[in-house]
Write a structure and sequence with these properties.
Helix content: over 70%
Largest sheet: 3 strands, antiparallel
Number of strands: 5
Distance between the termini: 59 Å
Strand content: under 5%
Length: about 400
């Protein structure tokens, strides 16, 4: 029985880690497929619309069949939360991210996304979701790690550096001749792409913070919340696309890479990721949910160099290394903080020992028994009277 309990607890503890690691593989595939689609001429505004329309169509039936009972009432406050979530995620985050991805590269975009835990930590402090006691080492690690992460992102933005050639991409790059200039972007476009990616990451961090509050209302209806956010984001993205994209032919989509990019992004990185992130944040918090982005950067770097023969620059390599160092400084501080909280929680669960001075015994009252005393039901409380052993009294001579 003990071994089964230990195994089940180990599996339950591993579930958040496995879920977030799996999502990073999904995000990595999305970056590669989307980059190919955008390079092929697809409008990122239209891509956002199709992506979240597909996500809504996929997730809505599950929400209807599994969560149709006891739905939370959509008050003005709840509607406003859903509206802002749709604006932050599908509209601002995705449009700016796709625009930055088009001007830079998949690996660089993923590296800039590593700023997400640091920005989420800063916003969590602002909204009093995280505590900071600068006298303790774990909080110092989180603050210093945040500063290092932002510094690494700034280095990547301002310094491109020489080209770093990989062993498996030299052969393909040497064939190109004049084609090498067609795939590269100018320094000005690269800088603009960096700024767009920073704005997208800031919107993404804001989404995590607000989603944590929205989950208080939809604690048992995560599928429903995901459906509403995707649906609201689709409507807002349509309005933005009508304003920004005046070419009606951009809406045409066939059985090609554009459809694959929209379907993959909608099913994997919108509907599934929003739902899984909500489940993880419910137990681990927003900082933990954003802590696995370096894994996505490594996956995309390998896939991008093989599939796209992607060029990697020295500034990106150095900046990525600095960001990862800062990121895991934040995570170490978060881990130590969780250990401290778990220790306090275990201490509170220990039964109280009350010493009875009259008869020299210790009465141990369990916490369940103490709670029963306040209940209206007549449940007997449990009290154990343990006599204290005294040393024998020597007779006086």
């Amino acid at each position: 029985m003990k071994s089964e309990t230990c195994c089940s607890s180990f599996v339950n503890n591993c579930k958040p880690y496995i879920a977030m690691m799996s999502l990073q593989f999904g995000y990595a595939g999305m970056n590669i497929i989307t980059k190919i689609s955008l390079n092929g001429g697809m409008s990122h505004y239209v891509l956002v619309v199709y992506r979240h329309a597909i996500a809504t169509a996929v997730i809505a039936p599950f929400a209807f069949f599994f969560e149709r009972k006891a739905q939370p009432k959509i008050t003005f406050r709840v509607f406003l939360q859903i509206f802002v979530l749709g604006l932050l995620g599908p509209v601002i985050d995705q449009n700016f991210y796709y625009a930055g991805l088009k001007l830079t590269s998949p690996t660089f975009s993923c590296a800039m996304s590593n700023m997400l835990p640091a920005l989420t930590f800063v916003m969590a402090i602002i909204f009093r979701m995280e505590k900071v006691d600068i006298k303790k080492v774990m909080y110092q690690a989180k603050v210093v790690g945040t500063i290092i992460t932002v510094g690494g992102a700034m280095l990547m933005t301002l310094y491109k550096g020489p080209l770093v050639e990989m062993a498996w991409t030299k052969h393909r790059q040497s064939h190109g001749g004049s084609s090498s200039s067609s795939g590269e972007t100018s320094d000005r476009d690269w800088f603009i792409g960096c700024i767009l990616l920073i704005i997208a990451t800031l919107a993404w961090a804001s989404l995590f913070i607000l989603q944590k509050h929205a989950l208080k209302t939809y604690s048992n209806h995560q599928l429903s919340l995901t459906t509403w956010v995707c649906f609201m984001g689709t409507l807002q993205a349509i309005a933005v696309t009508f304003v920004m994209e005046h070419n009606t032919s951009a809406w045409r989509i066939g059985w090609d890479m554009n459809l694959l990019a929209a379907a993959y992004a909608g099913i994997v990185t919108s509907s599934i990721s929003y739902y899984v992130q909500g489940l993880v944040m419910k137990t681990k918090g927003p900082v933990f949910a954003t802590a696995f982005s370096p894994l996505m950067m490594i996956i995309v770097a390998v896939m991008g160099s093989f599939i796209l023969a992607e060029k990697i620059y020295l500034g990106g390599v150095i900046g990525s290394a600095i960001i990862v160092i800062g990121l895991y400084s934040v995570l170490w501080g978060k881990y130590k903080e969780e250990q401290q909280l778990n220790h306090k929680r275990r201490m509170q669960e220990i039964p109280e020992a009350i010493k009875d001075n009259n008869n020299g015994s210790i009465v141990v009252i369990s916490t369940e028994a103490k709670a029963n005393e306040t209940d209206n039901e007549k449940c007997p409380s449990v009290a154990i009277d343990l006599p204290l052993s005294h040393a024998p009294i020597k007779p006086t001579q």
